[in-house]
Design goal:
- The protein has one domain: Spore Coat Polysaccharide Biosynthesis Protein SpsA, Chain A (Alpha-Beta Complex), CATH 3.90.550.10.
- It has eight helices and eight strands; from the N terminus they run E-H-E-H-E-H-E-E-H-E-H-E-H-H-E-H.
- The chain starts with a strand and ends with a helix.
Length: 184
């Protein structure tokens, strides 16, 4: 039902963190496959992906990767991002509402974990100084909806820009926040 796409390079610990939060989705039958797009994988990161049973792709365009995805829905996340324990129910509920045509827009993003949200002043200043990417809150999108953005994009980050999205109740801890918390 769901294909997870991750652009990865040299971050074995980040990839392992993200994959660990996806295990429950695989056990529940929600996650059909995890595709790691090789953007210069080092040996350690490749080993993590391989041992986790991920499909590693290299030298293919995003339209080819999207077309080959086994799931009807795609979940785009950054390596190092961690999904909350309730992500499965939230994603399943969203998909159900979209399929019943009771929810628009069809694409959705996760809410930021409370401890990663900034105050108003912090968010205002963060626009100028912080890390803000199109995938910082992940992206859940139908495969058919992803085809258009994929043809105009070189990376998952590009593909996630400018899309109207709903907000999922489940939370995500962005890559930068997880790494800061671990080093503190």
């Amino acid at each position: 039902m769901l294909t997870v796409l991750i652009d990865a390079a040299e971050d074995p610990n980040g990839l392992a963190l993200t994959l660990s939060t996806l295990v429950a989705g695989a056990v529940e039958g929600l996650v059909r496959e995890v595709v790691v797009i090789d953007r210069g994988l080092d040996a350690a990161t490749r080993k993590v992906a391989d041992h986790a049973g991920c499909h590693i792709v290299q030298g293919r365009t995003l339209p080819q990767i999207v077309a080959a995805a086994k799931g009807d829905w795609l979940l785009l996340v950054e390596p190092g991002a961690r999904l909350s324990l309730d992500w499965i129910d939230s994603v399943t509920g969203h998909i159900g509402e979209v399929e019943l045509q009771a929810k628009t827009p069809r694409a959705a993003r996760f809410s930021r974990a409370r401890r990663d949200r900034q105050s108003f002043v912090g968010s205002f200043l963060g626009r100028f100084t912080g890390r803000r990417t199109a995938l910082v809150e992940g992206l859940l999108i139908t495969k058919t909806q992803a085809i258009g953005p994929a043809t105009r994009s070189a990376t998952l980050e590009d593909m996630g820009q400018g899309l109207a999205t709903s907000l999922l109740e489940a939370t995500i801890r962005p890559r930068a926040q997880v790494q800061k918390a671990r080093s503190a």
